[in-house]
Amino acid sequence: MEHPYSVKLSKLVEDYHLEVLRKGSGYEECLIRTNDINRPGLQLIGFFDYFDNKRIQLLGKVESTFLEGLSHEERLKSFEGLMERGFPAIIITRGMEPFTECMELAERYDRTILRCQERTSAFMGTLIAGLQNELAPRVTRHGVLVEIYGEGVLIFGESGVGKSETAIELIKRGHRLIADDAVEIKRTGLDRLVGSAPELIRHYMELRGIGVIDVRRLYGMGAVKNESNVDLVVNLELWRDDAFYDRLGLNEQSATILDVEVPSITVPVKPGRNLAVIIEVAAMNNRNKRMGYNAAQVFTDQINRHFDEVMAGREND
After folding, report:
1. What is the pLDDT of residue 317?
2. Of 17, 159, 218, 257, which has the maximum CB count within 10 A?
3. 219 φ, ψ to 5°?
4. Is 142 a catalytic residue?
5. pLDDT at 1
6. Which one of 23, 55, 75, 163 is the catalytic residue?
């Protein structure tokens, strides 16, 4: 499936340490827009129905063994059918030597040929996972993303409500900053969201009255992280006396980001409330819920059992 986002073929070559055996003329500008990879076994025998020439082609041991059993003329015919239809690149796995016919026709049709040392299945899985991440749907939100006890907590709120100040207190308590002010969120799976900071502002924070600080320089490498899952959304809002705030936690809320439902809570802000501690507890409580323990539900069940026992005792009297 073609995605609205893209990644340069040259970036994949660099990221996966691929050896360039031949560069096509469009190598530097070649963009990959699909996370599907094709092993062209059927194409090598001439079956091109539903062939997608936007996919990277992967030649492994199976394809190589088949081609070895062909004559020179048959190999030329097999590769020509593939080369004339075009594709971003062929990647030869296991460090195998390319067939002479492959390089000859790559030269004629101006195709890119690459090579890796990994086993075919392992490399294919790694490359597909990488492409899914690169081409994932994404959105940028104004907020702060912090990792607390392994939970990615996305903090929203009006400007000036104290998001960055709360985050810096959490960092002092040993947690890690992922992004401040602008959070790039990708949907990398069916229900998995991953947040990161734009490269330009990564590891920086803005604190009113102080200005921009470099968290990595001030607190060390242990205080920052490049990306994190988004497991909980915390909405900070100024305390309103006329607003209702959940006292038990039975009314579970959620926020929708890229069509994924994420648990959400609203924390009212007023003088004297230690927001960092509250959010820290919220992260631990959210982790407990994901592991199957809901304290609010257990407490409510306990109270209900108590009243049931009291009422049963009165009836017996």
Report:
1. 62
2. 257
3. -115, -5
4. yes
5. 59
6. 163
Q: Which residues contact 280 (CB under 8 A, 6 or more apart)?
A: 148, 149, 170, 173, 175
Residue 236 is predicted with a pLDDT of 93
The reply to whether 270 belongs to the active site is no
What the block records as the tokens of 143 is 């907020």
Respond yes or no: is residue 175 known to be catalytic.
Answer: no
- Mark the ranges of the chain whose per-residue pLDDT is less than 50: none
Marked catalytic residue, from 181, 216, 287, 289: 181
